[in-house]
Amino acid sequence: MMTNKTTPNVNVQSIADVKSSVAPIWCPGCGDFGVLSAVYRACIELDLDLKNTVIVSGIGCSGRLPIFTKCYGFHGVHGRVLPTATGVKLANPKLTVLAVGGDGDGLAIGGGHFPHAARRNVDITYIMMDNSTYGLTKGQGSPTTASDFQLKSLPYGVQEENLNPIALALAYDVSYVARAFSGRIDQMTELFIKGIKHKGFSFIHAISPCTVFNDTYKYYREKVIDIPTEHDVHNKKSALDLWQTKGKVYLGTFFESESARMDLTTMLTELSASLQKKEKLTSENLLDKFV
Ligand SMILES: Cc1ncc(C[n+]2csc(CCOP(=O)(O)OP(=O)(O)O)c2C)c(N)n1
Ligand code: SF4
Fold it and tell me: Which residues of 85-116 are buried (b: 16+ CB within 10 A; e: fewer)?
């Protein structure tokens, strides 16, 4: 469902130009406010043309984000953010496409889509709003709930190991991998900008605490630390070492591919052009060939 209700401003100079008339209904202090603020600021700093910008979301508290912007929005099915965003980008490669969703959306029900978006290297920016719980459905454990988190719905804690989104993104060979924290909006904005500018699939793990069911602000404030400036973002092994460092949660760019790997839309456009040249494909004989 497209949720944009007014013709967006083309020239984005202030938050008023990006903000929709719908006021966010997240709980006080929810980390999602920080993510929204960073999205607004990234739109302004990049001077994005909002009528050519689409934010696709999943179901969850996080899934509401597009409604609060003047970008076009698609509030899709739980766990299907990435296939939907891929479809939007393929249908119109000129669009700037952001995909936003929770950790449940992206790693539980939708976990199977993450590696495929990565191997397709589709030119979208995926912001995983990770609160390590299912916020909308009242605080169940999620794939990123760690054993030291206290959830009301889990009186005996979690018995399983939690998934690490950064480790998965690196293993899936995502071409841009970063982590941000809602408590640091300037840095989050900067990383969203980098992700949007990156040509190919970019992933930003946005730690966004749920103040009602899993308030991890204090936990993260004590553990977050900037990735050292000497870290070589093109070095996958060094990126893997960073996420494995015990007791520290690194923020910043872990990895950026410098290989000449093409993004999906460029590849398909070039393939189509070369086939048309080689085989003189026309709209008339195209169907005979492929159907
Ligand atoms: C197909 C389907 N399965 C289950 C649900 C119920 N459901 C809605 S939101 C949600 C989980 C929300 O958690 P998360 O994706 O982490 O987002 P958050 O609310 O924490 O932002 C679930 C299980 C649903 N809406 N659709
Ligand atoms: S339930 Fe949690 S994630 Fe949902 S709006 Fe409230 S604080 Fe945010």
Answer: bbebbeeebebbbbbbbbbbbbbbbbbebbbe
